[in-house]
Every structure is written in structure tokens, then in C-alpha cells.
Backbone:
């Protein structure tokens, strides 16, 4: 059971570089989410999607972009990486907005 | 989403029951109470949820106050593998858009031998 798969698990970026965090789910869930978690803090929602072709901003969207061309994939793009984007990123999915949310294992990103 | 208040940390001995409290005095009638936990270096995982009645599953029990302004997650016999951060979250499932989880800092549970 793959569930929610995130890649890469670890990445070091230089300031100003760009990269894409990949997220895929094999549960045919309509809803997908990207969260970030800073050390010792709770999770903050970056972007979410309620279905293919539909995305919306969460609490902390600045510096990020997303797309949802298929039900399965929800990549998160970081443009012009900054040290403030050093964090752990979690992708998640749920069947609908009110159901249990399933999280990936996280992607540790360091910007130096 | 309405706010929740949890203690920052709690300790328990292994094999003993643990009661993790959560206050949510501004809860609305359509808010479900959800609990997630996050083991070290992992993503959060669902534990249990309920609306008004107490709920039991293989992981835990959820006791909800009659006025719904507080709830308690009960781990019947804590093990070392239960050491995690536990998040109490309210979700309004009647909203037309995605019902987004809002995570606070949760309760860090330490379990000792």
C-alpha cells in the first residue's frame, strides 16, 4: 500500500535555486494538501486542491506554486529558494474535505 | 475553524492509561473533533474523531463532554511507541470547500519505562 508518496526525502538548496517537491497518491482521493512544519511548531497549510485542475491558497502560500493536472499528482514548486523556506514539507490527501487525511512521510528541505 | 487548547507536554509510565485533554470552548454544532498524532520524523496519522458521542477504536477512545467544549483522548495502555505529539483539531465538515486541518502545537507525550 503506497498511500501518499513524496520525493525527494532530503534536499539541500542554495539561495535563489528552484525545485519541485513531488507528491503522488494512489487512493483516488480528490483532495490534496501541502503543509510545512518548522522545528517545534505545528503544521501550516501552504496550498490545497479539491480536484484536478483546481488549486487554492492556504495560510502560507508566498514563495510557492502548485498544479494539479491529474488526480494522483500534486507537485509543489519553490521558486527562488530562501532560508525561510527551510522546513519539513508534508503532502497529504483525503477522499473529501471532511474525511480522514492521510500524510506522506515528509520532505526535509534546507536552503543555504 | 474554532481554536483548541492543549497542554504542551505530558508524561506517562508504560502500561498505564493516559488522558490527553483538549479544550474547545468555541466549538460550533457542525465541528467534528479530530485527533491526529505525529511520531518522531514522520507525518501525522489519524487517531480518532467524533461529534457528540464517545468513540472507541483499536488505537484509542475519545470522550466528549456533554457541552462539547472539551474532549479527552484516552490511550488505555501507553507503550513506548505511543510517544508522539498529539493534535486535537476541529473540522467543520459542512463547508463547501476543503475542510482544512489547522494544526496547533499539540501535546508532546513522553512515555517512560
Residues:
Amino acid at each position: 500500500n503506497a498511500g501518499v508518496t513524496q520525493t525527494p526525502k532530503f534536499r539541500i538548496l542554495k539561495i535563489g535555486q528552484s525545485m519541485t517537491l513531488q507528491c503522488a497518491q494512489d487512493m483516488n482521493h480528490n483532495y490534496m494538501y501541502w503543509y510545512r512544519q518548522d522545528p517545534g511548531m505545528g503544521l501550516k497549510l501552504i496550498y490545497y486542491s479539491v480536484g484536478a485542475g483546481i488549486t487554492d491558497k492556504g495560510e502560507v502560500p508566498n514563495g510557492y506554486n502548485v498544479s494539479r493536472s491529474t488526480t494522483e499528482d500534486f507537485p509543489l514548486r519553490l521558486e527562488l529558494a530562501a532560508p525561510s523556506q527551510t522546513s519539513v514539507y508534508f503532502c497529504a490527501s483525503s477522499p473529501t474535505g471532511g474525511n480522514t487525511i492521510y500524510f506522506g512521510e515528509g520532505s526535509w528541505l534546507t536552503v543555504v | 475553524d474554532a481554536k483548541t487548547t492543549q497542554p504542551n507536554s505530558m508524561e506517562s509510565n508504560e502500561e498505564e492509561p493516559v488522558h490527553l485533554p483538549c479544550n474547545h470552548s468555541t466549538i460550533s454544532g457542525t465541528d467534528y473533533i479530530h485527533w491526529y498524532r505525529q511520531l518522531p520524523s514522520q507525518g501525522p496519522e489519524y487517531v480518532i474523531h467524533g461529534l457528540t458521542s464517545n468513540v472507541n477504536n483499536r488505537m484509542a477512545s475519545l470522550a466528549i463532554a456533554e457541552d462539547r467544549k472539551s474532549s479527552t483522548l484516552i490511550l488505555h495502555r501507553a507503550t513506548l511507541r505511543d510517544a508522539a505529539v498529539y493534535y486535537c483539531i476541529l473540522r467543520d465538515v459542512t463547508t463547501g470547500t476543503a475542510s482544512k486541518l489547522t494544526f496547533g502545537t499539540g501535546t508532546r507525550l513522553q512515555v517512560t519505562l
In short: The mean pLDDT of chain B is 90. Residues 34 and 49 of chain B are 4 Å apart (CA to CA).
